[in-house]
Amino acid sequence: MIRVLVVDDQAMVREGFSALLAAQADIEVVGTAENGRDAVRVARALHTDGLGPDVVLMDIRMPEMDGLAATRLILDGSHQNQPKVLILTTFELDDYVYEALRAGASGFLLKHAPASELLAGVRVVAQGEALLAPSVTRRLIEDFVKAQPVERGVRVRPEALSALTERETEVLGLVAQGLSNAEIAATLVLAEQTVKTHVSRVLTKLGLRDRAQAVIVAYESGLVSPRP
Length: 228
Description:
This protein is an alpha/beta fold. It is built from ten helices and five strands. Residues 3-126 form the Response regulatory domain.
C-alpha cells in the first residue's frame, strides 16, 4: 500500500483528491491537511505512529505556511524514511516549481491534470521512478539550471562523478534527459532491472535522495549541458 498525505487549503480539492486516491486498491490516504503548518504536524504525528506517508501531495499556495516551507520541514532529515513530496501547481513553469525542487520535492503535477495522471504520479513518485509532471522533459530542468545560478541545495562536484562506472555515468545522462527506466533499457539494450540497479547505485554513490536530485546534479556538474 502507498500511504498518502493530501495537503490543500481548498476543502473541495482536498476531499476530491482524497476520495480519488482512497478508491484505489493500492493507495491509502492516511491524513489530510489544510495548510503547510498542519501538514508538518500531521506528517510527524503519522511517522510517530508508524504510519508515515510514502507520498505527500502538496499544494504550494496556502495560508499560515506555504508548501515550500512545509516541504523543507518534512524533508529535514529528522526521520530515516522520508516521504516523497509531489507538488501540485497551477502553472507548469511557475517559479515555485524550481523552489520546490530545491527544497527536495521529487516532482510536480499540474492541478488541472487528468485523474489518471494524478494516480500515475503518486505511484511513480512512490517508487522513486521519475521526476514527474504532465510534460516533464529535459526542458524543465534546463530552464531550472539556467534560471537558478545560485546555490540550489544539491551540490556535487564534477570529480565526484569519477566514482561512477562508465555505464552508470551513461545511465545518469539518460536520466537527466527525462527517460524512464524502460526507455533507458531500450536505448542501451539492457534489462529494465539492470537499469534500476544502475540508477540505485548512482544515487547511493552520489548521496542523492532520488532521480529529481540526480537530474539536477547531472546539469550542475556539467555532465549534461542546457541547450541554448
